[in-house]
Structures are given as structure tokens and as C-alpha cells.
Design brief:
mainly alpha, 2 domains, globular
């Protein structure tokens, strides 16, 4: 029986990395710019959270959620498209909150477009014009 990959440590590291961007603790880093260090650690935290989600959702190590790993892509693709639209919408609000770091809205906007693109691609292949003939 194949052992499922560990995702809990990635959640812990990711949460710490993202949380430190919300707490203004200046760490200059080797380049002397504390905001760049803070953003880099936050971005690494987001990557850890994504990898943890991937490992928990698909039960395997990897980065890209290929269609073969989806249990029901016909229904899931529509849900992913909706999540992408909601993420893009929330990025507008996040970008206007004063206590959030300045590029937070831009990063969430980028993530939203990636989610939307993934869902739209799966929909095209499974339900849309790119589906295989039976």
C-alpha cells in the first residue's frame, strides 16, 4: 500500500511564512531591504500552503493538478472556475486594505487568474470543444 505524502509540516511552515507578512517585523536579510525579505518569506509560505493542499487533495507529491488526478472533472471544473472568479474579486478588496502589504492584492489576483485558467482548461478538455470524441 502506497504511503500518502506528509502535508502537515508544509501547512505549519506556510502558515508561519504568510503570517509573518501580516506582522511588521523588519528582517533586513542579506540584501538590506526588509520589505523584500518579508515578501520573499510570504511567497515561500504561499508555495508551501499550495503544496500542502496538493498533497492532501490528490494524495501524491506533485505540483500540477493534471486531469487524470481529478475524481469528477465535469463538476469540479465549474467549482474551480467559481473559486477563481471569487479569488480575483477578493483581490480587489485585499488591494485596498491599508494594513495588508502593498503587493498582496496583486499576488492574490495572479493566484486567482491561475485558478481560473486551470478550471477553464479542464472545462475545455472535459466539457467544451477540446473534448475527445467517444
Amino acid at each position: 500500500m502506497e504511503q500518502k505524502p506528509n502535508w502537515l509540516m508544509l501547512v505549519i511552515f506556510g502558515s508561519i511564512g504568510v503570517a509573518q507578512t501580516l506582522i511588521d517585523l523588519p528582517v533586513p536579510g542579506p540584501w538590506g531591504a526588509s520589505s523584500f525579505t518579508q515578501g520573499s518569506i510570504g511567497l515561500a509560505g504561499l508555495i508551501c500552503l499550495y503544496l500542502a493542499w496538493f498533497r492532501r487533495t490528490f494524495g501524491s507529491k506533485g505540483v500540477l493538478p493534471i486531469i487524470e488526478r481529478w475524481s469528477n472533472p465535469r463538476i469540479s471544473s465549474k467549482k474551480v472556475i467559481i473559486v477563481g472568479i471569487l479569488t480575483i474579486s477578493s483581490s480587489i478588496i485585499i488591494g485596498q486594505i491599508s494594513f495588508m502589504p502593498a503587493p498582496a492584492g496583486l499576488i492574490v489576483h495572479l493566484i486567482g487568474w491561475l485558478i481560473l485558467l486551470n478550471g477553464f482548461y479542464v472545462w475545455l478538455v472535459v466539457n467544451g470543444p477540446l473534448q475527445e470524441e467517444e
